[in-house]
Write a structure and sequence with these properties.
The complex is a heterodimer of chains A (about 375) and B (about 575). Chain A contains 15 helices and no strands. Chain A is mainly α and about 375 residues long. Chain A starts with 9 loop residues before the first helix and ends with a helix. With about 575 residues, chain B is α/β, with parallel strands linked by helices. The N and C termini of chain B lie far apart (about 55 Å). Chain B folds into three domains: about 170 residues, P-loop containing nucleotide triphosphate hydrolases (Rossmann fold, 3-Layer(aba) Sandwich); about 170 residues, Rossmann fold, CATH 3.40.50; about 80 residues, no CATH class. Classes of the chains: A mainly alpha (about 375), B alpha/beta (about 575). At the A-B interface, helix 1, helix 10 and helix 11 of A face strand 5, helix 3, helix 11 and helix 12 of B.
Chain lengths: ~375, ~575
């Protein structure tokens, strides 16, 4: 509570207020926060690298070089597709304002279902492969959908139930892979290799990219069309913008949540199926989770604000971090965990934005 | 002070310049833009010490922006603010408070779980010397301070009461005490009467007079003409961000004020009372609603027929909103039945009810009636998005939406209702209240549902838009639909309703036909029939609209003859 400063003359005040107006206008641009989050993350990363006595320029160069190395592009594309798939699992509920943190559980259930179908049914691959993918989508979708009635009937927030249910699924699958379904005599907790007829169709002679990735890209397109062109997509966006407005307008919010969570789980399930049906063609304990596709996808979805058209772009960023991180470790001696740190910083900054936005709207509407 | 308002309308009406030397606040050439929207343009305003100065104008005229700049919530782009002769530049409300300003906002900013005294002294607590220095609030001193201020200004308040248990009027008194506690010499009241009963309005006006007589400068921001005439000394009228009229209240007439606000005189739209009601579209039987702690609607029965407007009067918070929510289906019922067009929908979903022919204009436009972060087109589409032409309810296009149809529908609506917007892709949250309300009204009327519930359809809406919305509602009635009109504006109910029910404490306590309904009777029932003091109610009964205006209004779809109660109305189809 200081005394108000006296104004000197009108002219400089005018100039400064115009400058400030421009600055506020620029700061309010919707792209500022996401890009700022990335820049901030890179700066913090640079400080950490410097503190470790290493050169951040070399490290970041190694990240870019490795991820975009022409010889690596096949692998990079496969990582991008998996991140996109998991981003989808986060983005569909995010569109209606819900957070799906159970991607890991949905992912491993999809992988398990695809493994069981593909290894036990003696069918031609033209039937077997789609069947395995669809089965994975159904089981993982059903698992994801559990959270919707928990929210509507019992008031357990989706963000909580997905987070808590996920480790249960992961543990169950881990047990199954270790014991009943495990490969006899193997030192590693893994299933036997899938038969030839149950392996995802390769794209030419590429070793990582296969038809499964095309399925994931198609799912992205479907989400984009549903989001922008259908009544359900409209309702998702309305509920995400203002839940009470949606309910007042006749949107069945509970059913919508059920559908969104089922679709999100299904997307994660498809990713799980594609991963196990790609090389090395088996379900290995922990192999679906350890690359961190789930949280890279969540970060990409958050960075895109759930907007389908932006997810492929934000997914590129996290793909570069993910793939390049390994290269950075090799050529610049910076531990790859740094890319996790960078992802974490991006998420924290975005979460901060949500909080500040809320404060701002509260203030302006009051 | 040199007046810079260049509007011709203002020149004709401008009174002699206020006396110099008395100015508590001078606003000189204030300008403010939000993007392409000019909110204030060269506004000059002088507030003289010890006077009540009304700042009036339609919604979106720039009154709130102007007051926000005076109170340090916004920074002017141009112009100068002087408080007691000194130029000031406020970085925030705290600076403004330190300079002697106080503001009572339309929405109260109080801690509901704390006592009146705690709320009043919050931020400037009297301290007590103790073990830890002056770390503790001296509650006894706080209580004494509240009592002293309350006595001095005639603000009847119990310092120990918990704010959450108080009525809106009592909360407002707490807000005023808060400002006075901080020695506010200039008190800004933003739409202070919106939530008050007629008798509470009277006592507020008494407080305002008393404060002004004690030397406080009071700014009353309002769009209600009768309040301006009743309590102010001077009036400044804003339109489109400019000053369009300055009056000494004793020289001003309601007609002049309306003309300065709207640029035209508006004719009062009135229900002609013709036609016979048809079949029953809404039947509520013994409805009770509980909010978990107490019964908020108790044993309400009512019906609405085609071709009639049934009004529900009541001070807000007497169960009207819960009644509407229970009929819409967003709130569960504890007992009773709701029938729409004969079908029992007590347990049905909102969508099913709407499909049976129900449309609702909700009270809370920003919280329930719209999504402020979505466009006008998207806001106008909700509820229409599964039927032609935007969507399709059957066939191959079922579930799909046409963005082209969504936009063209919105453009039609904007043109039809004269919504001031830069286009259908503008975010609805950036429209003024009146314009956003037009979008909501247009969206709901477009259903042509046999039953429309209109809850405070003109709350926070300017005079011009009120006339337009009232005209639309009467047309809707004339087209053979039933309307349940919930309002706390008695004049609105008198103008529109065929029957008026009064809700108090969750129950219907009185029922009047249009012929029986008077401001006094409704006001008495609104205040709780048994406790109502008839003299008090009749004091609060100045007819709010300008009664002597007969000029036809070109924009209102239904302009009535000079004798609005004439039983035969030829132009009704």
């Amino acid at each position: 509570m200081t005394a108000p400063p006296e104004t000197t003359s009108a002219a400089p005040a005018k100039a400064s207020s115009r400058g400030r107006r421009l600055a506020t206008a620029a700061l309010r641009h919707p792209a500022v926060v996401p890009i700022g989050a990335v820049v901030l993350a890179l700066l913090i990363g640079a400080v950490i690298i410097l503190a470790a006595g290493l050169d951040p320029i070399t490290a970041y160069t190694a990240v870019i070089q490795n991820s975009l190395d022409p010889g690596q592009l096949d692998y990079t594309f496969s990582v991008w597709a998996f991140i996109c798939g998991m981003a989808l699992a986060a983005a569909i509920p995010l569109r209606m304002g819900e957070f799906n943190l159970g991607g890991n559980g949905q992912l491993v259930l999809g992988g398990l279902t695809a493994t069981v179908i593909a290894s036990s049914l003696p069918l031609p691959s033209i039937v077997l492969i789609p069947l395995a993918v669809i089965g994975a989508a159904i089981v993982a979708g059903a698992f994801g959908a559990i959270s919707a009635p928990l929210a509507t009937r019992f008031g357990i927030p989706i963000i909580i139930s997905t987070l808590l249910l996920s480790p249960v699924a992961v543990a169950v699958v881990s047990y199954l892979v270790r014991f009943p379904l495990g490969e006899a005599g193997s030192a590693v907790a893994q299933t036997t290799r899938l038969p030839e007829g149950a392996r995802m169709w390769a794209l030419g002679d590429l070793s990582y990219s296969n038809a499964g990735l095309i399925i994931i890209v198609l799912l992205m397109v479907v989400f984009w069309v549903v989001d922008s062109r259908t009544a359900v997509g409209f309702e998702l966006r309305v509920v995400g913008a203002n839940r009470r407005f949606g309910a007042y307008g006749g949107v069945r919010v509970g059913r919508l949540a059920l559908g969104a969570m089922a679709a999100a789980g299904a997307a994660a399930g498809v990713v799980g199926a594609v991963i196990v049906m790609s090389s090395p063609f088996r379900l290995i304990d922990g192999a679906l989770i350890s690359p961190g596709y789930t949280f890279a996808g969540l970060a990409a979805a958050l960075l895109a604000g759930g907007r389908p058209a932006l997810i492929p772009v934000t997914a590129i960023l996290f793909t570069i971090l993910q793939v390049g991180g390994a290269g950075m470790e090799r050529s610049a001696d910076v531990p790859r965990q740094l890319s996790d740190v960078l992802q974490g910083v991006v998420i924290v900054v975005l979460a901060l934005r949500t909080v500040l936005d809320q404060r701002r709207t509260e203030r302006s509407s009051a | 002070m040199v007046s810079r308002a260049s509007d011709d309308a203002a020149d004709a009406a401008r009174p002699p310049a206020p006396a110099e030397g008395e100015a508590a606040v001078e606003l000189i050439g204030i300008g403010k833009r939000f993007g392409s929207v000019v909110a204030n343009d060269g506004v000059d305003l002088v507030l003289r010490r010890g006077t009540v100065h009304a700042v009036m104008g339609e919604n979106g005229a720039g009154k709130s922006t102007l007051m926000s700049m005076l109170f340090g919530l916004l920074e002017p782009d141009s112009g100068e603010i002087r408080v007691e002769g000194r130029p000031v530049r406020f970085a925030g409300p705290l600076d403004a408070i330190a300079a002697g300003l106080g503001m009572v906002h339309q929405h109260f900013r109080l801690f509901d779980t704390m006592s009146v005294a705690d709320n009043v002294v919050y931020g400037a607590e009297p301290r007590r010397r103790g073990l830890f220095g002056k770390a503790f609030v001296d509650r006894r001193a706080a209580d004494a301070r509240v009592r002293e201020l309350a006595a001095r200004y005639g603000l009847d308040t119990d310092p120990a009461a918990v704010v959450g248990s108080l009525s809106a009027g009592a909360r407002q008194r707490v807000e005023i005490l808060k400002a006075l506690h901080r020695d506010a010499r200039i008190l800004i009241l933003d739409e202070p009467t919106a939530v008050l009963t007629p008798s509470e309005v009277d006592s507020l006006f008494a407080v305002i007079r008393r404060a002004a007589d004690a030397g406080t400068t009071v700014v009353l921001v309002t769009h209600k003409i009768h309040e301006v005439l009743a309590v102010s000394d001077e009036v400044t009228v804003l339109r489109d961000g400019r000053v369009t009229g300055r009056f000494a209240t004793r020289d001003a007439s309601a007609a002049e004020l309306v003309r300065a606000m709207t640029g035209r005189a508006i004719a009062e739209v009135k229900n002609p009372g013709t036609g016979t009601p048809g079949e029953t579209v809404l039947e509520v039987e013994g409805l009770s609603v509980s909010d978990g702690r107490r019964t908020v609607v108790s044993d309400v029965s009512l019906s609405v027929r085609r071709g009639e407007i049934v009004g529900i009067a009541g001070v807000s918070g007497n169960g009207q909103h819960e009644l509407v929510a229970a009929v819409l289906g967003t709130l569960g019922v504890a007992a009773g039945r709701v029938r729409l067009a004969g079908a029992d929908v007590t347990g049905a979903s909102v969508r099913d009810r709407r499909a049976r022919g129900l449309a609702v204009i909700p009270e809370d436009r920003r919280g329930e009636g719209s999504a402020v972060t979505m466009t006008v087109a998207e806001n106008a589409a909700l509820g229409h998005h599964r039927s032609a032409p935007i969507g399709a309810s059957t066939g191959i296009r079922r579930g799909w939406m046409s963005l082209k149809a969504e936009r063209s529908q919105a453009r039609e609506l904007i043109a039809d209702y004269d919504v001031r917007t830069s286009g259908e892709q503008q975010l609805i949250g950036s429209l003024s209240g009146g314009n956003a309300q037009k979008v909501v009204v247009a969206r709901e009327l477009a259903h042509q549902a046999p039953l429309l519930i209109a809850e405070q359809p003109t709350q926070g809406v300017d005079v011009g838009a009120i006339g337009a919305i009232h005209g639309r509602l009467l047309d809707y009635r004339a087209a053979g639909n039933g309307i349940l009109l919930v309002s706390h504006e008695i004049s609105e109910l008198l103008a529109l309703a065929d029957r008026v029910l009064v809700m108090y404490g969750g129950a219907i306590v009185a029922s009047f036909t249009a012929a029986e309904a008077t401001t006094e009777r409704i006001g008495a029932a609104m205040a709780g029939a048994a406790a109502a003091d008839p003299t008090e109610a009749s004091d609060a009964a100045p007819d709010p609209a300008a009664p002597d205006l007969t000029a036809p209004d070109p924009t209102a779809p239904r302009s009535t003859a000079p004798h609005p109660t004439a039983p035969h109305d030829g132009d009704r189809a």
